[in-house]
Amino acid sequence: MFRALVIAGLTAALLTGPAVAAPEPPVTGAYLQITADGVPTGPGLEGATHAFAALAAIYDATGDPAQKQEADDLLGYILQRRPDHMSTDIGLQLLDSPYLQGIPQLRTNLDTFADSILDLYATQPDKVLRTGDIRTLSGRAELLTGYAKYLEQQSGDPARIQAADTAARAMLDRLAALQYTYQEAVGSFHNDRYVGSFPHFIAGDNGNMGTWDVEHWAPAMLSLDQYAAVRALAIGFGRFHTAAYNNAAAAGTRHLLGTTTIDPGLIYAGAPAGFPLDGATYQIGEETGEHPYLITYGWSPNAIAQMGTALKAVRDNRVKVPRSAAWLASYWRGTPPQTVLAPGQFWHGLDAKIAYTHRFIESTQLPVPAGFPWLDLDRTTFPGTGDDPVRRGGWYDGSGRGTMSAVYSRLAMTGYVESGGRDQAVLHRAGQWWDQLIVRG
Q1: DSSP β-bridge partners for residue 34
Q2: Selection from 421, 437, 308, 312 nearest residue 365 by Cα
Q3: How far apart are CA 363 and CA 375, in angstroms?
Q4: Nearest one of 341, 260, 360 to 303, comparing CA atoms
Q5: How far is residue 201's CA from residue 98's CA, in Å, rounded to a whole number?
Q6: Pair type for strands 404-405 and 287-288
Q7: Residue 61 vs residues 143, 341, 428: alpha-carbon distances, Å
Q8: In whole angstroms, what separates CA 189 from the centre of its chain?
Q9: Cβ distance 60 to 99 under 8 Å?
Q10: pTM above 0.85, yes or no
Q11: For the chain, which has fewer Cβ within 10 Å, the N-terminal or C-terminal residue?
């Protein structure tokens, strides 16, 4: 009897075939934020674009087919809603992503997007060079520089390559001209902390900072704006070998050299909690001033990761710190030590700083290791360790904020991968967190 039942069971299995998992419902968006009390909010297209960019970066680093499938599903939804989907950020990511370069629609969209920038520059150069914010200018400069190289690799139209190079150089020239000297920083802002930094807006001969309180501090002058400008100039130097781009990138890098260790005792100096402002210093020879936590909006993984991309661009494009006395007087507070002036030692130091940015991202991914000191500080506002399904594998926004933003998390993830971060456990946990943000059905 038992034998007959077994035979019957096998016969039924052969007739029906193996069990097939039901296909997942289609993507209908992704959440944009998880609130401090753990509620996902803002499902839709914007969240999907950030989730797609993050999962694309993760897949490029892991090769995990499940992550590729999720990215494919998100892209299908995005292109259905916005067939011409492209931006400066996704364009820059595409130029370095085998996965994204393998998607014909995105390649076409990049060509169209680059055309729109080139057409705007050809017809209204002043609008490109003297309106808007510094990150738009530096982003376009970096994109066109990389796009020209990409076209060369694809044996593209020489006239198109020349047009991209011409526009990129004009934008890089403008970036270098906008960088503040010692005299300009003190004269305009009464604060020599901003020597070598860039304004937030690019209107006017020297740019401007709008309503930012720059006599005391202005994060926009020393954080993501700074990183984007330094990265664009370093990459521009790598392509065009123009000394002005090297010198400007080196001057901007001064702000980024301060530490290779995580010091939680300095995180919450100042008020509001999470903004360490003037409560910490660092030393590079005679160089003193702002601690790197200042220029990363406090304890913010997204800014630390993006800082890593700027440092990698400086190192990979072999930017050197000039020995010119006139340049040092204009762009460097104090005198840099030999470890900064000697190119090999300078690049070795950048390697150590890039590795620090990776450690920072890895050690602040939720849940953080047991006993991690920043959770014990009296002024933290984080709602726990993150050891729960809705937070595990992601990052808090930083700077004392307990929310989790798709925007900031995407910046953390893409910056980590772009600067060389490859810890597989970190990447897989992050992939699982992003998967939870995807809305289906």
Answers
A1: 40, 404
A2: 421
A3: 12
A4: 360
A5: 34
A6: unpaired
A7: 22, 34, 10
A8: 28
A9: yes
A10: yes
A11: N
